[in-house]
Amino acid sequence: xxxxxxxxxxxxxxxxxxxxxxxxxxxxxxxxxxxxxxxxxxxxxxxxxxxxxxxxxxxxxxxxxxxxxxxxxxxxxxxxxxxxxxxxxxxxxxxxxxxxxxxxxxxxxxxxxxxxxxxxxxxxxxxxxxxxxxxxxxxxxxxxxxxxxxxxxxxxxxxxxxxxxxxxxxxxxxxxxxxxxxxxxxxxxxxxxxxxxxxxxxxxxxxxxxxxxxxxxxxxxxxxxxxxxxxxxxxxxxxxxxxxxxxxxxxxxxxxxxxxxxxxxxxxxxxxxxxxxxxxxxxx
Length: 284
Known about the structure:
Shape: globular
Number of strands: 9
Distance between the termini: 52 Å
Number of helices: 12
CATH class of the largest domain: Mainly Alpha
Strand content: 5-15%
CATH architecture of the largest domain: Orthogonal Bundle
Mean pLDDT: 88
């Protein structure tokens, strides 16, 4: 496993791989653990200074904006909104952003069983599925059903407000919690998407019908399915709306310049964000 100090070499190898210029040594370094981490974006497993297993997420040669830095911003906003996320830090390697995440499927030297929602539902790429199907499986196998259902609904609202359109089934997962059963994993791969890059639609439908619309109204229409009372939904909506409205301040703290922040405005400042703020008092 490459150590943390090899980040510059890993980043260079990743860029050469994407550009079809990789060497055999690059491949050996990127696949040092024995297999790919999967996903569409470049990443690698590395060891922290204390021996902790980490994931390094690299910028792509095809990026037209600082995707990694925006993921760091969005992950911070999620934490502020009460969403459970993995420990992470943003690093600069040769002036380029690299996001380091602590693996949540490890506990010391023990590997924690992990299932993506795609595996859980027996689904395949390209199929239409909904959050309510994940709810059904958690009701059947979950160790803390009500707590996790509330967490999923919080994530739906968050995804709507930050325009995280990459919420497909591979980006939801459960972990085995000892003898108790399965628990929802921390959220991961949280990325805002400006409207000029992709329409504001979700990859996983909020309702059972294939309606990919990113809608606060749809989320509110199914709160009973998530074991939520109106006052509980109101509290979650307040948490998420309050945190995400600070997106410009958080982006600036991460060193993003005004032009880059303005370029991302359509992901955070839109009709559903205004509805979320306006609906807070209507659920009480």
